[in-house]
Amino acid sequence: MGYLNSFYLSGPEVELSVAGLILLIVAAFAGQKSAKTVTALAVLALLGAAAFTVNLFTNSAFELGGDVWSGLYRMDAFGSFAKILIYIATIGCLIVAPKFFDAKGAYRPEYPVLMLFGAVGMGLMVSAIDLMTLYIGLELSSLSSYVLASYSRNDGRSAEAGLKYFVLGALASGILLYGMSLVYGFTGSTSYLGIRAALGDGLSTGALFGVVFVLAGLAFKIAAVPFHMWTPDVYEGAPTPVTAFFATAPKVAAVAITMRIALDPFGGNAAAWQQIIIFAALASIVVGALGAIGQQNLKRLLAYSSINNIGFILIGLAVATAAGAGAMLTYLAIYVVMSLGSFVALMMLKDSGGNQLETFGDISGLSSTRPVLAWCLLAIMFSLAGIPPLLGFYGKFVIFQAAVEADMVILAAVGIAASVIGAFYYIKFVKVMFFDEPADVVVADQSKARWIVLALSALIISPLGYLLTPGLDWVTERAASALFFVV
Predict the structure, then answer these.
(1) I need a surface site. Which of 1, 275, 355, 458 has the fewest CB within 10 A?
(2) Looking at residue 105, what is its pLDDT?
(3) Which helix (H) or strand (E) holds 341?
(4) Distances (CA, A) of 11 to 17, 49, 104, 126, 243
């Protein structure tokens, strides 16, 4: 009966694992011609996992969640919320990918399979309540990501991006594993509950070093300063659909495990890590804003934008309260929509030869030649800048509100001031698209999937998106409260 319960509560990972193995066999026997069929089946598998996760989240019988697999895995509202975001983001990235790779004749069935296994790893990460489970999920997700980054075999930039991501990712994994070993050595447990109990009387010097190394390893995964160096190169070099994936689903998983690690096993010693998080938050906001100003490549600019936005999200973690955690999840949900929309818009920038266009010069005067695309990009950029009445403003508002309520007024003030710097490069999009002479190199995009994803993203971040905020607040509050339920 115990195993049946374990299989049921970890149903999304079980279902996606089985689907991934079946689709891997299909791909092996059917070859490249099965790519679109495998993609459609992968999307169905992700939809099924998302639906099952929604049922677990809303089912009152599981309101307090449950620990299964002998205390290695926890099904709770927090993990369920993160998984829903991960699955939705992965679906969005999958349905826009075939058209991009078909133009180069490079779309293969292993692409959606890698996405599925990446989603399995991310699901394990956000539900892990033991350091061993966390590491297994992290490596499963990372291995898929390394291959995806270098997916375009004939593109030197893609191969370089994959190699850089692999080398720096291996370094970060080593740092994280060393931190875990120190935590285990000084607490005698790899279980989150055991670690929290062992640290109840305070952190020893050795355990503090372990906490620092663990947070440093996770800072690489979320691309927080000073462990952000891989982000611009990987975002620029990887194929745009892969970059869209990196900016959404793995970002959700990385932020979620950072939250769970900080607030669960180390939650009783918040004073020991708050200063680290505050530094990473402010440094990420400033470096992300200043680094983006001089960029001409749009993908590199959005890479620095992601670093900047991670800084705002970390302000919520620095607060170390349920309100701060809820604000983080609200911002994260809105950020996923904005990131997905922005990268889909970049995919639609191509010339008559089918080549991707990635610079400001290419979108010069875009409002005259492709007005709908230009207006969608304008809305997304203004939302990323946090300009009202777009929904991105609400994400920043709840973060700063949580900081002020926790008497961190100076932190909120510095964050608000730094956000003004970031508005410069977002407004640059508007200046180039609406006021410069038309380059007239962007041709019309006929992909219905891309237009649907872009239209939905633009609609959600528009003022109409505020109609969703009551429901979003309820969902994020319930998810955040699960992190503060200590047995």
Answers:
(1) 1
(2) 66
(3) helix 322-347
(4) 10, 8, 37, 14, 28
Domain ranges of the chain: 3-483
* pTM score of the predicted model: 0.93
| Integer Cα distance of 165 and 332 in angstroms | 23
* Structure token digits, residue 356: 């991707």
Q: Is 122 helix (H, G, I), strand (E, B) or coil?
A: helix
Decide: 412 and 404 in contact? Cβ < 8 Å.
Answer: yes
Query: 440 is written with which tokens?
Result: 């007239």
* Tokens (6 digits) for 251: 């970002």
pLDDT tens digits for range 17-67: 999 999 999 988 888 888 889 999 999 999 999 999 999 898 877 777 788
Alpha carbon 279 to chain centroid, angstroms: 21
Show the CA angle centred on residue 467, arms to residues 466 and 471, nearest 5°.
100
Nearest-10 Cα torsion for 473, 474, 479, 484: 90
Query: b/e per residue, 140-172, with b = 16+ CB within 10 A?
Result: bbbbbbbbbbbbbeebeebbbbbebbbebbeeb
Distance CA 458, CA 131 (A): 39
Name the token pair of 260: 């769970």
Cβ atoms of 302 and 343 closer than 8 Å? yes
